[in-house]
Design goal:
This protein has 245 residues and is mostly helical. The chain contains 8 helices and no strands. Helix 1 runs parallel beside helix 5, helix 3 runs antiparallel to helix 4 and helix 7 crosses helix 8.
Length: 245
């Protein structure tokens, strides 16, 4: 059962992973939902000082999970460019870390507009299904994405942060800087950060790439704009109605 517990991707035999939305996948999702609900409930019941400690704990745990992965693979000679934390969720790790040190609306807007849905999509359509259930990288991947969701969720539900489309320009600038850089990295190392070059297998992005072909990267931008419209519309409606009450 634990034969491949510490085995990294290149040495994983084919056919021992789990399928998307299989019982294994659903069990992981169910457990993570319960964990996130418990964390949010604890956060809401805590005082200001305790909430600060919780944010530091979760932010530190997210950073430690990724740091230990990077360090282990480097020390065991298994490191390769695709491991670098330049996926959207990888950058989210540093955004969370910065927010724990210096809470501000910019980092929180980035977490809401980019990280939370990116982590949610990763959990629904994981690209680490080649790993077996009893593998540390399976656990690490599921847990780190769940924590990337619960951190901004705590802030939203506690009303310590309210999304505002007037601040969305900050996310636009972030994307405008990151996308060319990530695209350059992908060309340099043959990686696929942000899935800019190729859609993640088994995800809705595959249909998008099949539909738009060479215009696939452009279609990603259009989808992001539509997603932002959906995510910010409820908050904009509430903000518009509030002054008239």
């Amino acid at each position: 059962m634990f034969k491949y517990f510490m085995t990294f991707q290149p040495d994983i035999p084919e056919g021992i992973g789990f399928a998307q939305f299989s019982m294994t996948h659903l069990v992981f999702l169910g457990l993570l939902i319960l964990i996130d609900i418990y964390i949010v409930r604890c956060y809401l019941r805590s005082n200001s000082q305790q909430q600060t400690h919780m944010r530091w704990t979760i932010g530190g745990l997210i950073f430690a999970l990724e740091f230990l992965r990077q360090a282990y693979l480097a020390l065991t000679g298994q490191y390769n460019p695709s491991v670098m934390p330049f996926h959207l969720c990888g950058l989210g790790i540093f955004i969370v870390a910065f927010d724990t040190i210096k809470p501000n609306n910019t980092t929180r807007e980035l977490l809401y507009s980019l990280t939370i849905w990116g982590a949610f999509a990763a959990l629904l359509f994981p690209d680490w299904t080649y790993y077996p259930a009893m593998n540390i990288w399976t656990w690490q991947s599921f847990l780190i994405h769940a924590l990337l969701i619960v951190y901004p969720l705590m802030l939203l539900i506690s009303k310590q942060f309210v999304p505002n489309w007037h601040r969305l320009w900050r996310s636009i600038i972030f994307v405008a800087i990151c996308v060319p850089f990530v695209y350059w990295l992908n060309g340099l190392f043959g990686t696929n950060f942000w899935f800019l070059n190729t859609a993640a297998g088994g995800s809705p992005l595959t249909a998008l790439q099949n539909m738009f072909g060479p215009y696939y990267p452009l279609s990603l931008i259009v989808c992001l704009l539509i997603l932002w419209f959906i995510m910010y519309l409820p908050w904009a409606i509430v903000a518009h109605k509030r002054p008239h009450r």
